[in-house]
Write a structure and sequence with these properties.
heterotrimer; B: about 290 residues; mainly alpha; 11 helices; globular; C: about 240 residues; alpha/beta; Rossmann fold; 6-stranded mixed beta sheet; 9 helices
């Protein structure tokens, strides 16, 4: 209950805020930050809880975006269906990569995720139906209830964020989370304690992939455009990994802190200096935290509170 | 329809390319294959080597290959320091370090790539030399001279390193530490020192590989991502810890990629390495000659 | 005798190295069984093959009449084979009680929709292992002997019918060895078959009803403790020819 009351409040806020006469830019930027909240939370389910590093968030995000585009273009599917289809594709991709590599050591899974990112981007670049290398323009359908499509997407993403965090929290605090943590701590001992390690890893990978796919679904509508380079962008990797690790992997609240911090940082640095500098700053922060504060900001906060 | 002539040309090019890929991967074969360090920053450091070569060659007018050789000691030291840091921060602490070690090298690769963009921009850079831009003609076939130079250097590098590992004391110590660290410790050798020299050598070799890279084609900062696929494909296909396997695996990749390039064009060729990597991981993860 | 574990012609190689060579053993229900042999003789490898941590290339492993050779480790644990690890492997990010919650939730209470509070059961197990007061301690703060006891407690949480104790007493003091030995005797008196791997000879001799000695991957002799100790082959294996 301690979780659900603030969660529902945030959800209501997220849905109601776009109705207020606030500057459009808030929702434009806020959408991106919320996307990273979902991505980092999703990454954390496999990376933080189970200890398997996914270097391919763009692949899952991208397959979600392109699935949404295909559904929209082929049958004018409403956003909800696009999101569902995207989540399904993301989940299947997670399952696929998992079946291929989760039996092996963690680094092979990590490299495989790099591989599918590259392969998917190559495939989409060569697929003319979705625009190929030059991309595809998309016409937004008319929006109801909200003043603009962007505002509606903000509300949708707010709902998705609350949903993703709720899922992550449930997994973490349940027997599923304990099983994932046990296999992260010692896979051999986990198996010897009756934990079906491969099945759990596949489950975490599929859920993580599905959430990332869902996060990718509204993006084509947000931009009214889709193209491979910006869809399969490295910033999603950095945002997911960085958000989770800097915020505090292993706990559902960490990615929220990390994503909001990095999202805000991104706005400030990109506007005042440059996009590349922002990416460099995040990279440095990531290394600093991994070396000096492995439990992230949450961990640091816990240490300070204990004193 | 296949043209036999084109196929033959693709095969020859593939062999040259493959040898180059082997040389480019051999540093990873040592650092990941033998030392078990999750060095995903290997290609990024190699691209850094390419840029260092470019800067040195442009400033001094030196031949790029020579420039590459000159920067090797610098990279050797850099490698030693990186390993030392990695060992103290992660390897000592045990299994929990898995995620952190990977994230560390990813962050490092990232910093290198973006650092290069900030320093040099996203444009492609290339070097000039007598052998760049000219080709050998064998009857109807034309083979770019720079590929032959790269091929020669690659062969020397691969065999040189192989012989070094087999015949010198340090080399054999490196192979020993990969196989049985506790035994080595009992014999009085310090495994950490040996591993740090090995990592340093791997990084130094990457510098020369970077020089070869910029000789073979123009470079840009984002190339490290493409080469993650190629180097890991070679190392995994070879089988962790196998030096001779690296050459065989490199040749296989080179030929396959070259044939795909000929048949399907340049937009598909880069994905070959990644695709082959996934296939190997799925069917035979221990590779051709793996332990 | 009704055998609970049948190891038939098991071989295991690592690359060029043969760790186990045609090992065959039969262990009776409720037996106290000792497995000895010099370092590197293949004891832990054999245990790993039985528990499923490793797959043997040849031979079969039958548990309670069922061929488990192809089963993954977690399924063997669910069928009743539990083992402790030679070098303790606690779930270091969890407290002692949480360490036990894992096998309790995944084996004992598996299939029950309401997984409920396993805490009470965990506390009871810890009490039996004399670890009751450490329930909420992070497992990485435990001493060596406490870690060994946690290993056993975690194995017991799996409600095994066969418990394999892999050098649980190594490096312990005399009184600590007594403590662990007493726990093992108690468990056996409840009907649990126990395989003990140890180097501490007096513990093995006191505990075991039957002993087998391994050397270089082969069984070199089998019999009552008193005979084994006097066997010249065994002495040669330990002291070197």
């Amino acid at each position: 209950m301690k979780f659900w009351i603030p969660a529902i409040c945030i959800l209501v806020l997220g849905v109601a805020l776009p109705l207020a006469p606030i500057n459009e830019y808030v929702f434009y930027a806020g959408y991106v930050v919320l996307t990273f909240v979902v991505m980092a939370t999703a990454w954390n389910i496999l990376g933080g809880y189970a200890g398997y590093v996914n270097f391919g968030p763009p692949a899952f995000f991208g397959i979600g975006s392109y699935a949404a585009v295909v559904l929209f273009k082929s049958m004018n599917a409403p956003l909800a269906v696009q999101i569902a289809g995207a989540a399904l594709m993301g989940g299947l991709l997670g399952l696929g990569v998992g079946v291929l590599t989760l039996r092996l050591r963690g680094i092979f899974f990590a490299i495989a995720t790099v591989a599918i990112t590259f392969i998917l981007e190559t495939l989409m670049t060569n697929w003319r139906y979705v625009g190929g290398a030059t991309g595809l323009q998309l016409l937004r359908p008319p929006v109801e209830l909200y003043e603009s499509y962007t505002r509606m997407l903000f509300a949708v993403m707010a709902g998705m964020s609350v949903g993703a965090v709720a899922i992550a929290r449930y997994i973490q605090t349940s027997w599923l989370g304990r099983g994932l943590r046990s296999l992260r701590d010692s896979e051999e001992a986990a198996e010897a304690s009756g934990v079906p390690t491969l099945k759990l890893k596949l489950f975490a990978c599929a859920v993580s992939g599905a959430l990332m796919g869902a996060a990718g679904a509204p993006m084509p509508m947000y931009l009214s455009f889709i193209e491979p380079p910006s869809t399969f962008n490295l910033s999603y990797t950095v945002g997911s990994l960085g958000g989770a690790i800097i915020g505090g992997a292993g706990h559902w609240a960490g990615p929220i802190v990390g994503a909001i911090l990095l999202g805000t940082l991104q706005q400030i640095v990109t506007v005042t200096v440059s996009g590349e500098m922002n990416v460099l700053v995040v990279g440095v922060l990531l290394v600093v935290f991994v070396v000096a504060a492995p439990e992230g900001i949450l961990g640091l906060a816990r240490k300070i509170i204990r004193r | 329809m296949f043209s036999l002539d084109l196929l033959l040309e693709a095969l020859v090019f593939g062999v040259l390319l493959g040898c180059f890929y082997a040389a480019v991967s051999i540093g990873l074969s040592v650092s990941f294959g033998l030392l078990d360090v999750p060095n995903v920053a290997h290609p990024a450091i190699m691209v850094l080597g390419s840029y260092a070569t470019w800067v040195l060659a442009a400033r001094t007018g030196l031949d790029p290959l020579l420039a590459g050789v000159l920067i090797m000691p610098v990279f050797f030291v850099f490698g030693v320091l990186v390993y030392r840091f990695y060992y103290e921060t992660f390897e000592r602490r045990g299994s929990e370090a898995g995620v952190r070690g990977l994230a560390f090298f990813f962050g490092l690769a990232f910093i290198v790539e973006v650092g290069l963009i900030l320093a040099f921009g996203v444009d492609q850079r290339s070097v000039e030399a007598a052998y760049i831009g000219r080709s050998f003609s064998f009857g109807d076939y034309r083979i770019p001279m720079r590929m032959i130079v790269a091929f020669a250097v690659a062969l020397v590098l691969t065999f040189g390193l192989s012989i070094f590992l087999r015949s010198t004391f340090v080399g054999r110590a490196i192979k020993a530490v990969a196989q049985d660290e506790p035994a080595l410790r009992l014999m009085g050798a310090n495994p950490v020192r040996i591993k740090q020299w090995a990592f340093g050598i791997a990084t130094g070799v990457s510098a020369l590989a970077g020089a070869m890279l910029i000789i073979v084609s123009p470079v840009e900062p984002a190339m490290d991502r493409l080469y993650i696929g190629r180097t890991f494909c070679v190392v995994v296909l070879a089988g962790l810890g196998s030096m001779t396997g690296t050459l065989a695996a490199g040749l296989i990749l080179g030929v396959v990629e070259s044939v795909v390039l000929m048949q399907f064009g340049a937009s598909w060729a880069p994905a070959v390495a990644f695709g082959l990597l996934l296939v190997v991981l799925g069917i035979r993860p221990q590779g051709l000659f793996g332990r | 005798m009704s055998s609970i574990l049948k190891i038939v012609d098991v071989s295991k190689t690592f690359g060029g190295f043969t760790a186990l060579s045609n090992v065959s053993l039969e262990i009776a229900q409720g037996e106290r069984f000792g497995l000895i042999g010099p370092n590197g003789s293949g004891k832990t490898t054999l245990i790993n093959c039985v528990s499923g941590a490793l797959r043997n290339e040849a031979g079969t492993i039958e548990f309670d009449g069922e061929d488990v050779t192809r089963l993954p480790a977690y399924q063997r644990t669910r069928r009743g084979i539990a083992r402790s690890f030679q070098v303790p492997r606690p779930f270091h990010s969890m407290t002692v009680a949480e360490n036990l919650a894992v096998p309790l939730e995944y084996i004992a209470h598996k299939g029950s929709l309401h997984l409920g509070d396993t805490h009470a059961e965990a506390l009871e197990l810890l009490r039996q292992m004399r670890l009751g007061d450490k329930a909420d301690t992070p497992s990485r703060n435990l001493s060596q002997v406490e870690l060994r006891k946690l290993e056993l407690a975690r194995a017991m949480a799996a409600r095994p019918r066969l418990l394999i104790s892999d050098e649980a007493m190594a490096g312990l003091s005399g009184s600590e060895v007594e403590e662990v030995l007493e726990i093992l005797f108690q468990l056996n008196s409840r009907g649990i078959t126990i395989i003990m791997i140890e180097h501490i000879m007096q513990a093995v001799m006191r505990f075991s009803q039957r002993v087998v000695c391994l050397d270089a991957g082969r069984i070199i002799c089998e019999g009552a403790p008193a005979e084994i100790v006097k066997n010249p082959e065994v002495q040669r294996a330990y002291l070197g020819a």
